[in-house]
Design brief:
By secondary structure, the chain is an all-alpha fold. It is 53% helix and 0% strand. The protein starts with 8 loop residues before the first helix and ends with a helix.
Length: 57
């Protein structure tokens, strides 16, 4: 979804106000999941339901 929106990992990390990009990489690889608060922000940013964001293909 990040790539579909044309966002770099750094841009998403900046948008989420993270100091480092590692959290975004961890989400993408399935190592960790976003918190409920971050999931809500991602849902609004990507205009997708939260459960769709959590599905890894």
């Amino acid at each position: 979804m990040r790539e579909e929106k044309g966002m770099s990992v750094q841009k998403l990390a900046d948008f989420m106000e993270f100091e480092a990009v590692q959290a975004v990489y961890n989400w993408q690889t399935g190592k960790t999941l976003p918190s409920i608060e971050n999931l809500k922000i991602l849902s609004e940013l990507f205009n997708k339901p939260m459960d769709e964001i959590l599905i890894f293909e």
